[in-house]
Amino acid sequence: MSERILKALIQLFALVAKVDNVGGDGRTVVQVFLKQQLNAELVQKYLLLFDEYLEQHQKISKDKVDKEKKRTSVNSVKVLRICTI
10 Å Cβ neighbour count for 55? Predict the structure, then answer.
């Protein structure tokens, strides 16, 4: 699997984890997925990336305590942008 696809998947995992308010369980799911695909060193690299993306999405959500619909709309746009890369 290419690095570009992996990064896009990690971004999507972080987005979905944030939408569902998933904490450690989401990270465990990502870790299991990565272990099936990669060696231990790369698993750690992409888990750190997942943590960074998750933190970014949480910060954005806290900054925009506005409306749930707006957050869903923004996340939908992010998903579309990630998938078209």
Answer: 12
Q: What is the pTM of this model?
A: 0.71
SS (H, E, C) 44-72: HHHHHHHHHHHHHHHHHHHHCCCCHHHHH
2: left (phi over 0), alpha (psi -120 to 50) or beta: beta
How many angstroms separate the CA atoms of 70 and 40, rounded?
Answer: 38
Tokens linked to 82: 């990630």
Predicted confidence band of residue 33 (pLDDT cuts 50, 70, 90): very high
